[in-house]
Amino acid sequence: MLELRLIQGSLLKKVLEAIKDLVTEANFDCSATGFSLQAMDSSHVALVALLLRSEGFDHYRCDRNLSMGINLNNMSKMLRCAGPEDIITIKGDDGTDTVTFMFESQKQDKISDFEMKLMDIDSEHLGIPDAEYQAIVRMPSAEFARICKDLGSIGDTVVISVTKEGVKFFTRGDVGSANIVCRQNTSVDKPEDSTVIEMNEPVSLTFALRYMNSFTKATTLSEVVTISLSSELPVVVEYKIAEMGYIRFYLAPKIED
Amino acid sequence: KQKQQTISRFFSHD
Fold first, then answer.
1. Model confidence over A46-99: pLDDT tens digits?
2. Which of A44, A133, A212 to mutate to test the interface with B (most CBs of B within 10 A)?
3. What is the CA radius of gyration of chain A?
4. Percent of chain A having pLDDT more than 70?
5. Which residue of B has its CA nearest to A157?
6. CA–CA distance, A72 with A124 (Å, rounded to integer)
7. Do B13 and A253 touch (CB under 8 A)?
8. Partner B, chain A 116-155, Cβ-Cβ below 8 Å
């Protein structure tokens, strides 16, 4: 028996919109810890890890660990039928091949049940070790999205370099090149507008902009994005989900062939 | 020429 009630149902809608283009099918895992997902894109270049902690739900019942294979495009279609203010409850049962999404209006005057078919997904689960990063950049998520979009119109890859001067985003394409530097800037009044750079060592890595631009679909989930970089490791682009958990995107760097 | 690496090169299977 599974019953997860989320007052702020819009969070789940936003999570789906953030990952459905990167990953088409995935197993959602439900345990006492929370509702989670780990999945790679079809090219195995990027990985998304989502956690919505059980404490963040209004009601969380998960009698035993359950894995639900879901086509994310279909789930997104169903969640789009929920109103922006609706409360969403996810219901499932052991041994059935469906999951039900229940949408309740704030005033409780409209209740909808959408039943979706589950599927068997043979997914690989990867162990992600804790790592020390050479540099961690925290910046407004909208600013990061803007940079990725702008650079994506010029080139295919972005070189992200962190030095004590700041964080530099560089691309080159057929039409020319572009270089954007963001310096550390702390805003006391609005900490979410700050750019904070923690650097242990300078680092410079190259990534495909197509993936970075896909990650920025999570911008609506958090005002701040954290970018963790180390040579020889995938970059982690993390959006915290208010008081509930996070969505982390891992992207393998490009190297000189 | 640049080569795209895969995630599984960095993270091991559970």
1. 999 999 999 999 999 999 999 999 999 999 999 999 999 999 999 998 888 999
2. A44
3. 19
4. 100
5. B2
6. 17
7. no
8. 124-129
